[in-house]
Design the sequence.
């Protein structure tokens, strides 16, 4: 790895797009406020200046329309990057993502593929109320034909976004409003991170904690807390949600015999539900305790700070879940 | 069929004792002028305070101020009847106050307190009051357009003789939902008035950058829906256009699309530095300030003296100050509130693990 270079998550994403756009003229960026405003969250800052209005395209507020136009363009030789201002608003476009992008290869008997990236922030970001606080990784991950990525730090974000842009299938790439300013080491040189590979962010022996996106902070802090009590937690960052790296989790559980999953979104039919099924199937005999999870509460998230605090997974609950998997509480 | 007052006629509405876009002469009483003045001044001072409090982090999340656009809501409210419904997007403080939600309840909501209009659950973007026929503050751009038609659909179905006024921004008219709704609103003769508050920008995007048809009232032409372009800096013109549209909705069940041209003095939200427009442009609109316009008429017509208006200013200052005290004193909702209001079913079995 080249020498230390600290940049923000949003800059890492921008570098991935810029580098890929420099080498492949069929790639373009499209979305609300991406060009003249330099991005609602400044991810695309400066890109209009470099690539011009042909390749960095501002849209009206018409998510279904510009997502569909981009899918059509992808079917006909281009490689769009579609920015949704947030994934809450991508719900207006989900028809084209699910019914068109995800299915066109299969429906056309392999003739038309759809090399497209749908990206933007996902999840809660402070006190934004019920309509602006949602996380839909599991919704997209449910759909055959899509790949889903949700990185937790600048390094992973850059390497995975480059892979997503180069991928010949549709990729849903989910970021976080509250992580755009997070800084991390991103080497200056070229690298990519393969889609579908989780990452052990901390090794341990007593309990496995699995998470992704900004909840990785909770998972890693919980591991710190547990370490103070001589409990060694292994922390796995999924990074890619579909295809999910089940073997990595199963191997870890075979070592630790205990599993805690931390997930920001709602519990019903969640990523943690799917992991739980796979682990009970492939590591049943290795489990020394029922699998635990810490998720967002099973409700719509209100505005007040007390509600946000009570809703989101936190370090204390994760520590408690880990200890309960160890029969210590 | 009562066909359109074309925009050319509508924009001729210029005099203070305005002409509606049709032929009716409208004159406004002292009472209406005083009501407009007081109501708009309350909206203005309330939001100036909210802006300050946002800076002090008493108000969090997204907060969108309406300052500059007040005449759209005030001119609308004076033209409506009791029981008429309103729905809008997230820029909703003024609509809520004009509907009759107390400044105390609105301020407490901005604070996220339990005595807020939605118990601290909605915040700035999601003010609601069933009691005051305010169907909310909605955060997904354009989502309120079909909802507004649906509310009016229900009033017609129930035979109430009330209508719904459905507000949206200039950015929102680009959503497919508008076009689907306009089709059905005309087909089913729904008593709704659609109002596009054209403040020239959707976030940082000027209207001209979103369409080759910058006269937004023309959107309605494809549906044969009556429409007009209205000067939104003057209550008289808004009232006249709204009265005509409301009558048409109420009496003939014909929807109208009003493009009301207005301006927001502040950024899109508290975090927008608004670099996409010039100081001169902002000043141009401030020179047509809706409150000053009404104030001028009041004084010129001897409806009140300068001292009377100062007394009103003082009263409003007290109301706003009291709303801050009220919000400060109210507690945040208890964490247990999370599980309330998600279902009507009282013993709904939430997943707890
Ligand atoms: C479906 C959807 N897309 C994007 C957004 C983000 N957003 C919030 S307000 C806004 C601009 C809307 O402008 P306009 O309709 O003109 O209303 P104004 O803010 O001027 O009142 C955007 C893009 C959203 N809330 N919902
Ligand atoms: Mg606007």
Sequence:
């Amino acid at each position: 790895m080249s020498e230390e270079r600290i940049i923000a998550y949003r800059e890492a994403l921008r570098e991935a797009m810029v580098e890929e756009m420099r080498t492949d003229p069929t790639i373009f960026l499209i979305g609300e406020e991406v060009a003249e405003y330099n991005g609602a969250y400044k991810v695309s800052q400066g890109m209009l200046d470099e690539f011009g209005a042909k390749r960095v395209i501002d849209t009206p507020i018409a998510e279904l329309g510009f997502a569909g136009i981009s899918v059509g363009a992808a079917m006909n030789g281009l490689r769009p990057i579609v920015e949704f201002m947030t994934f809450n608003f991508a719900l207006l476009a989900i028809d084209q993502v699910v019914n068109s992008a995800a299915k066109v290869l299969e429906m056309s008997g392999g003739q038309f593929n759809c090399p497209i990236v749908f990206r933007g922030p996902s999840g809660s970001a402070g006190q934004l109320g019920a309509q602006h606080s949602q996380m839909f990784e599991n919704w997209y991950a449910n759909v055959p034909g899509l790949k889903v990525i949700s990185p937790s730090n600048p390094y992973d974000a850059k390497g995975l976004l480059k892979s997503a842009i180069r991928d010949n299938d549709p990729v849903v790439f989910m970021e976080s409003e509250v992580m755009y300013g997070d800084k991390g080491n991103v080497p200056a040189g070229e690298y990519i991170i393969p889609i579908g590979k989780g990452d052990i962010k901390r090794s341990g022996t007593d309990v496995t904690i699995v998470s992704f996106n900004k909840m990785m902070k909770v998972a890693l802090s919980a591991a710190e807390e547990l370490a103070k009590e001589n409990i060694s937690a292994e922390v796995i960052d999924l990074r890619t949600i579909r295809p999910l790296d089940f073997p990595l989790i199963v191997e870890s559980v075979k070592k630790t015999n205990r599993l805690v999953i931390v997930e920001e979104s709602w519990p019903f039919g969640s990523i943690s539900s799917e992991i739980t099924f796979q682990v009970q199937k492939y590591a049943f005999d290795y489990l020394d305790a029922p699998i635990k999870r810490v998720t967002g509460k099973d409700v719509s998230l209100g505005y007040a700070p007390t509600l946000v605090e009570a809703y989101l997974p936190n370090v204390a609950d994760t520590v408690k879940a880990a200890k309960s998997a160890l029969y210590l509480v | 069929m009562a066909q359109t007052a074309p925009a050319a006629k509508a924009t001729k509405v210029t005099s203070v004792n305005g002409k509606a876009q049709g032929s009716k002469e409208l004159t406004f009483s002292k009472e209406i002028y005083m009501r407009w003045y007081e109501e708009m001044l309350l909206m203005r001072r309330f939001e100036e305070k909210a802006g300050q409090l946002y800076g002090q982090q008493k108000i969090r999340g997204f907060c969108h101020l309406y300052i500059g656009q007040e005449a759209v809501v005030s001119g609308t409210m004076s033209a409506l009847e009791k029981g008429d419904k309103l729905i809008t997007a997230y820029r909703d403080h003024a609509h809520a106050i004009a509907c009759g939600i107390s400044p105390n309840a609105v301020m407490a909501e901005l604070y996220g307190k339990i005595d807020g209009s939605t118990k601290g659950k909605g915040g700035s973007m999601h003010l609601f009051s069933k009691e005051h026929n305010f169907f909310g503050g909605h955060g997904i751009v354009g989502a309120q357009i079909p909802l507004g038609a649906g509310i009016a659909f229900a009033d017609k179905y129930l035979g109430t003789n009330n209508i719904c006024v459905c507000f949206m921004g200039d950015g929102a008219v680009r959503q497919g939902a508008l076009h689907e709704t306009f089709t059905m609103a005309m087909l089913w003769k729904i008593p709704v008035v659609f109002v596009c508050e054209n403040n020239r920008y959707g976030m940082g995007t000027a209207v001209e950058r979103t369409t080759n048809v910058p006269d937004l009232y023309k959107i309605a032409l494809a549906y044969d829906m009556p429409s007009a372009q209205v000067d939104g800096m003057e209550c008289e013109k808004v009232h006249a256009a709204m009265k005509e549209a409301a009558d048409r909705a109420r009496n003939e069940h014909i929807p109208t699309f009003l493009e009301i041209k207005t301006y927001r003095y502040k950024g899109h939200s508290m975090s927008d530095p608004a670099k996409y427009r010039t100081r001169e442009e902002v000043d141009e609109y401030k020179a047509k300030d809706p409150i000053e316009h009404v104030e001028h008429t009041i004084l010129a017509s001897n409806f009140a003296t300068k001292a009377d208006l100062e007394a009103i200013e003082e009263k409003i200052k007290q109301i706003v100050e009291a709303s801050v005290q009220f919000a400060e004193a109210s507690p945040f909702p208890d964490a247990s509130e999370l599980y309330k209001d998600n279902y009507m079913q009282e013993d709904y079995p939430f997943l707890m693990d």
